[in-house]
Design goal:
The chain has helices at 2-34, 67-74, 92-102, 104-107, 140-155, 176-192, 205-211, 230-238, 241-248, and strands spanning 39-40, 43-44, 52-53, 78-87, 114-120, 123-131, 159-161, 164-166, 173-174, 218-225, 254-261, 269-277. By secondary structure, it is α+β, with helices and mostly antiparallel strands. The longest helix has 33 residues, at 2-34. The protein starts with a helix and ends with a strand. Mean pLDDT is 91; it is low at 1-19.
């Protein structure tokens, strides 16, 4: 009589792990999708930092009640949230196909920074959210220098950016010219409620740096939205292959960064980091 009982317990444990793996796999697939330029309707997205898994957002599929109320009970300080429900996908791959076909706009919205996924058999709930900023940010120059410090810490060690290996890179030096360009672009994104390397006049990061008088031979740019601290911005860039490659590029020696806030914008806060080769 003991043997069947043991077998049953093992089977239940395996089934629970398999379910958790499917939820994790879906988050990984969503982040992989966000990490590349995608076409959604008539618009192309930018490369986006990965969403952070937050277990408070993994609300039970069958949980009744208002979404905002449920997140409040879970202790998540929500500013904006979007919940997607799917019925029918048997695994993460099928769920991802459904999301790409019907919910690409939500998946590619740069304001969202956290995600939770729950599943009950073939029913899924995917919750994407942006948390409340903690309000402890310094001015844009203070936070820009914090970003520089954390980038230099990251560059001091060899690392893998997607499929590309990078050796440790020299420290970046602060550039007032690049910082001014970064502040202007962050402000333009916040006030204009958009997220793009191209500004509203169609100028590239290189164009903007040149107009500001930066005489470098090469310019690169990383942008972020919705993140309330410099460390979170850097963590997101390091987890995104394209952003990470810019960050670890040993040819870049100059750096300037800034954030801007507009409460009326979707993401509330926007960051720009500009890299330059003198």
């Amino acid at each position: 009589m003991r043997i069947p009982c043991s077998v049953l317990l093992l089977a239940l444990a395996w089934a629970g792990q398999a379910s958790a793996n499917e939820e994790t796999q879906l988050i990984q697939s969503i982040n992989s999708y966000r990490s590349e330029v995608q076409r959604c309707g008539e618009r192309a997205s930018e490369e986006l930092s990965p969403l952070s898994e937050d277990r408070r957002l993994a609300l039970p599929v069958e949980a009744p009640g208002d979404l905002q109320q449920l997140l409040g009970q879970a202790g998540y300080p929500m500013v904006n949230v979007q919940a997607i429900t799917l019925s029918g996908p048997r695994d993460a791959a099928a769920a991802m196909r459904a999301l790409r076909e019907s919910f690409c706009k939500v998946l590619l919205d740069p304001q969202f920074v956290d995600i939770g996924v729950s599943r009950l058999e073939r029913d899924w709930r995917i919750v994407l959210a942006r948390p409340l900023l903690d309000g402890r940010l310094g001015d844009w120059q203070v936070e820009g220098h914090k970003l520089l410090e954390r980038l230099n810490q990251a560059r001091s060690s060899a690392r893998q950016c997607g499929g590309q290996a990078f050796a440790a890179a020299p420290a970046l030096a602060w550039s007032a010219e690049l910082a001014s360009v970064a502040e202007a672009h962050s402000r333009a994104m916040a006030n204009g409620n958009f997220f793009s390397h191209l500004d509203r006049d169609g100028r590239t990061p290189g164009d903007r740096a040149e107009l500001a008088g930066y005489a470098g031979r090469q310019v690169g740019e990383n942008i972020a939205a919705g993140q309330g601290a410099a460390q979170k911005v850097v963590d997101g860039w390091l987890a995104s292959p394209g952003h990470c490659a810019n960050l670890m590029n040993a040819q870049f020696r100059d750096f300037g960064a800034a954030y801007a806030v507009d409460p009326q914008s979707d993401a509330h806060i926007y960051w720009t980091g500009l890299f330059g080769t003198p």
